Amino acid sequence: MPSKVIESFTISYPPSARRNKVEGYTEVSYDLNEKGKPFNLRFTRSSGIDIFETLIEKKFDKWKFEPATLNGTPIVQKNLQYFFTFSLTKLTNKYPEPLMRRQFALFYKAMRKQLKEESYEKLRESLTVMENANIIRYSENRQLWLLKYTFLNKIDGSINDKINALQQALKDTPRVDKTKKLHSKIKSNLFKLYVENKQYIKAYSQYYDLRESEFSDTLIDDLAESFEHVKAVLASDESLDTTIRINGTELLTHYLSRRMFKIESDQDISFMELRCGEFNVQLNYTENALYQMPFDWDNCGLVLRAPEGTLVNVKEAAIQNPL
């Protein structure tokens, strides 16, 4: 059973940040001990504003959890994540800070020009700058990641980077028909990428998520043949063999469709973890080791960290079939 929050801590907006109209977005990772006490706080994405990180560090010990358990015994749970958003305005984009919006619009216009002129190295640098800026307003965030997705298609970027870009673009909840139509199209493209990358379980769930979306009827019709292929693969016991190139994304996630797998890599894998629903299990990477998941573990993503350019081969098989 995963851990549960008993008492969360709240952070008051720093008066100095409010006066200076400073906003930020911070992502942290942490571990929980057997008593439910958090420890080993790491900032995996910084806002760039020291006062926000300082406040989180001061309040961190106030967070109380019911510990995770395995067969009724409390256990350590590692690499949990949480996001802190420091915003002076509502995240609906209805009342955004005008200056911030104008600055983004100018930068975005310049990036569109770089894309049109095929100035890909300049555009790569610009995208890095904007990603590090931790944009917290949803409409700008969506524009940024869709631009990156287009850029990745132009330069033949890795499938996993394209998947990550589209996942980031879907982070907000659409409120108007125009955005709902766009979200349906993004989900359709995600389905195609999951199929191409042999992430059939994820493709299956993505299809049904798309089917529940508004304005998806024509998109569903276009995906019917691919979906029949997905169902056929999942109903069979055939083994799956996928090669992944790690480019750009710090953590790469590959959703598994079988319960046995092994990995081969041309460079060292420094971090490997299974994320199955609400719990994470960290693994030690051993070349050609065979891993087997229990039958009650579903929708598991294999998360890897390795040097950029690493080629990782993932072989999957049903438990009754050898690898």
Précis, in short:
The protein is of the alpha+beta class and 323 residues long. Helix content is 39%, strand content 25%.
Could you describe the 3D structure shown?
- The protein has 323 residues and is α+β, with helices and mostly antiparallel strands.
- It folds into 4 domains: 4-86, TonB (TolA/TonB C-terminal domain, 2-Layer Sandwich), CATH 3.30.2420.10; 91-156, no CATH class; 158-236, no CATH class; 240-317, Jelly Rolls, CATH 2.60.120.
- The chain is 39% helix and 25% strand.
- The protein is built from 9 helices and 15 strands.
- It has helices at 15-19, 50-59, 98-116, 120-132, 138-154, 159-169, 177-196, 200-211, 217-235; strands at 4-7, 24-32, 38-45, 64-66, 69-70, 73-74, 77-86, 240-245, 252-255, 260-265, 271-276, 279-283, 291-292, 300-305, 311-317.
- The strands form 5 sheets. A 4-stranded antiparallel sheet has the order 8-15-10-13, with no helix packed on it.
- A hairpin with a 2-residue loop joins strand 5 and strand 6 (73-74).
- Helix 3 packs antiparallel against helix 4 (120-132) and helix 5 runs antiparallel to helix 6.
- Residues 90-96 have low confidence and may be disordered.
